[in-house]
Amino acid sequence: MADEQSRDDVGTLTYGDRTWKVESAPVVVDTHDGLDLVEVWVERGEDVGESG
Q1: I need a labelling partner for 40 at 20 to 30 A (CA). Which of 14, 23, 47, 52 fits?
Q2: In which domain, by residue range, is 40 found?
Q3: DSSP-based three-state secondary structure for 8
Q4: What's the structural domain count of the chain?
Q5: pTM score of the predicted model
Q6: How far apart are CA 14 and CA 28, in angstroms?
Q7: Three-state DSSP state, 11
Q8: String of b and e for 21-32 (b: at least 16 CB within 10 Å)?
Q9: Are 39 and 31 in contact (CB under 8 A)?
Q10: Alpha carbons 31 and 6: distance in angstroms, whole number
């Protein structure tokens, strides 16, 4: 991964009731009508928490 970040920059991604630990910076892979499709690496396995 060319855009690797330090562990201090790790975040989370939440969709519905699942949350994953994000291990990379988002990379825009496509755009359409003002929207960006992004790719991130997430840690595989159980989700890391509840969404709120």
Answers
A1: 52
A2: 1-52
A3: helix
A4: 1
A5: 0.56
A6: 18
A7: strand
A8: bbbbbeeeeeee
A9: no
A10: 27
